[in-house]
Amino acid sequence: MPLQVGDYSWQQTEAAVFLSLPLRGVSVRDADVFCSESYLKVNFPPFLFEAFLYAPIDDAISKAKIGNDTILFTLYKKEAVMWESLLASGADKEMKQRIREQSILQAQERAQQAGEAKAAARREDQKYTLGVMMKIEEDERKKIEDMKENERRKTTKELEVWKECQRKAKEQKENQRTEICQQEKQVEEERKKVKHKSLTRKPSSGHLSSKGRHSENIFSEKLKEDSIPAPRSVGSIKINFTPRIFPTALRESQVAEEEEWLHKQAEARRAMNTDIPEFCDLKEEERNPDWLKEKGNKLFATGDYLAAVNAYNLALRLNNKIPLLYLNRAACHLKLKNLYKTIEDSSKAYRITKLLFGLIQLTRLCKMMPRRFGV
Questions:
Q1: Could you tell me which residues come within 8 angstroms of residue 323 by beta carbon, excluding any fewer than 6 positions away?
Q2: Across the 375 residues of the chain, what is the mean pLDDT of every consecutive 10-residue run?
Q3: Which residues contact 336 (CB under 8 A, 6 or more apart)?
Q4: Residues near 233 by Cβ (< 8 Å), separated by ≥ 6?
């Protein structure tokens, strides 16, 4: 049950009432203060203070200050008169209950009105903000439309200029063609005139005319034969290459080892496929599988798996006998979730490794056989 606080002091003027309520340990966080026109309540567990005021006050501008174990109220009167007492006299239990309920209803109505006013203000702010945003968007849209219109006009103007240039060029070509045709016609007419004059000057006898025609035909045939060039003569070109000379003394020369070395170099060049047209534009270092492998490893480290796969593909086209290239490409396919290609490259690397291991074992066995047989 709460403890009713009766130890308080108050003073008044014609405009205000000053009420001092001592509460030990009171704080702003724990104290619950309620004030209306005719009712004042302070709830600070386990203490409770209620005051049914003598006359109505203006609760909108009244104040309460909490601190130093005291609550100091400044209550402004609605009518500037002196009160006979702080509390209303003759208030029974039902009247107090009715005052409490009326005060709570009034506080709820004021809170609802304040909430509605706040919501209305928020809506007005949102409406204003939306209007400003719409205006900004409209300005941006208008600016974009103006830019599009300017670009369209500029493009149309450039297109018209281009069409005019094309038309002028076409007219110029037509004029040139017409002039060439006229010149050809003039040349043809002059040729006909010269031919006609030459025919009129010849004798009218049939023998001479026939002889002249025959000689003219022979001359034209001779001209045709002279205009055809003679066929080219067949010949052959002999090319001599400089022989491969090793910088070794004759007494230290080993022809068999040198021939074997040359044979191995030729086999390596054929295995590296350096004669493919796709590799003609590559540098000398880019034709080296080891350099391409290092390049692919750097790309794999940076996370560029597709570029690393391309590097390994080019290295394998140059030399497909290196199992480490297949293993590195399998790692790239695994990062790219290409599981079938990962399995395929891993299997190829395993087969090549197994084959190389067998060749190494066979070589060692061949080296040991002469010792066993005493050769």
A1: 348, 349, 350, 352, 353, 356
A2: 79 89 83 86 84 85 87 88 82 81 86 90 91 92 92 91 91 89 86 75 47 47 57 76 61 65 63 56 72 90 91 85 89 91 90 82 67 44
A3: 305, 306, 309
A4: none
What's the CA angle centered on 105, arms 101 and 107, to 5 degrees?
Answer: 115
